[in-house]
Design brief:
With 319 residues, this protein is an alpha/beta fold. It is built from ten helices and ten strands. The chain has two domains: 136 residues, ATPase, nucleotide binding domain (Nucleotidyltransferase, domain 5); 168 residues, Nucleotidyltransferase, domain 5 (2-Layer Sandwich). It binds 5'-O-[(R)-(carboxyoxy)(hydroxy)phosphoryl]adenosine and zinc ion (ZN).
């Protein structure tokens, strides 16, 4: 079964063609990051216009790369939620028009579920599993007892973890998106600033990152007022330690309580080395729990993950 996936929820215009939910024949990602960098974040209006300008080209490139014909496509899957409304509409219109014109089945897929299914490209999912979804817009713990069955256990009550990374980095003068830069610097610094582990003591699965973010901003403001230097690498290391510890401990708690056989991490922040390392060492302490991260190219937004999620949504609906 050949699925064409379309993703335009934020600042990546992407079209992919995936066979049987796993074999990625093409995954074209046109990133607008270079355009939004000068504004220090994604400008929704600019993002929508860029999607309009690039979507046709990205469709064409996907077919060229996959070397398949339009008639070979069995299903079109597109991200319909959540995301920037003006950006989502571009992908939805393109996908719907393409499907209708060629008489192909059309399905809409939730972006978060797409991030989770990015893991299937590398390996099978084993249930029950706990998925930690960490991105610029989301921080969620999801329980899956079977394919395409999702139970939300907890989520952030304020900022998403990627958003906190980006904001903290911005105040330190780092370029957008600051997450990967903070991650890199964290490995060159030491944990020397005292920062809170927000909600770590709570026996639930919700998160909060605005308090941690404010604590970092306070340290910077106080230093500025006193004319003191900030050790950026140490502050990155301290922030990363607090953020990642809460993410990992809550995931482990959920895995124990729901007797998970697998833990998967998904979304842009799944590329974070500090998160990968700590999660690995904590999961090793559990018995018979497999840990999976998507390949780096499938951590951030891409249409391949949407095609995979579409494949499973279609499969479970047809049963
Ligand atoms: O999944 P994604 O591409 O878009 C959303 O759905 O939000 O995630 C982008 C987010 C950005 O906030 C970016 O800073 C963060 O993922 N990110 C990272 C790393 N790589 C990307 N955050 C921390 N460490 C990283 N290595
Ligand atoms: Zn995303």
């Amino acid at each position: 079964m050949l699925v064409l996936g379309v993703e335009t929820s934020c600042d990546e215009t992407s079209v992919a063609i995936v066979r049987d939910g796993r074999e990625v024949l093409a995954n074209i990602v046109y990133s607008q990051i270079g355009i939004h960098k000068k504004f220090g974040g994604v400008v929704p209006e600019v993002a929508s216009r860029e999607h309009v300008a690039k979507i046709t080209l990205v469709f064409e490139e996907a077919f060229k790369k996959a070397n398949v014909k339009v008639e070979d496509i069995d299903l079109v899957a597109v991200t319909h939620h959540p995301g920037l409304i003006g950006s989502l509409i571009v992908g939805i219109n393109a996908a719907k028009t393409f499907a209708l014109t060629h008489g192909i089945k059309y399905l809409e897929v939730d972006h978060i579920k797409g991030h989770i299914y990015a893991n299937y490209i590398q390996e099978d999912l084993v249930f029950p599993l706990i998925a930690l979804v960490v991105s610029g817009g989301h921080t969620e713990l999801v329980l899956m007892r079977d394919h395409y069955r999702f139970e939300l256990l907890g989520e952030t009550l304020d900022d998403a973890v990627g958003e906190a990374y980006d904001k903290v980095g911005r105040v330190m003068g780092l370029a957008y998106p600051a997450g990967p830069i903070v991650d890199k610097l964290a490995h060159t610094g030491k944990v020397s600033y005292k920062l809170p582990y927000v909600y770590l003591d709570k026996e639930d699965y919700n998160f909060s990152f605005s308090g941690l973010k404010s604590a970092v901003l306070n340290i910077i403001n106080t230093a500025n007022m006193k004319g003191e230097e900030i050790n950026v690498a140490d502050l990155c290391a301290s922030f990363q330690e607090s953020a990642v510890r809460v993410l990992v401990d809550k995931t482990i708690l959920a895995a124990k309580n729901y007797k998970a056989k697998q833990i998967i991490v998904a979304g842009g922040v799944a590329a974070n080395k500090g998160l990968r390392n700590l999660m690995k060492s904590e999961v090793e302490k559990l018995e018979n729990v497999r840990l999976s991260f998507p390949d780096f190219q499938y951590c951030t937004d891409n249409a391949a993950m949407i095609a995979v999620a579409g494949y499973f949504k279609n499969k479970t609906q047809s049963n």
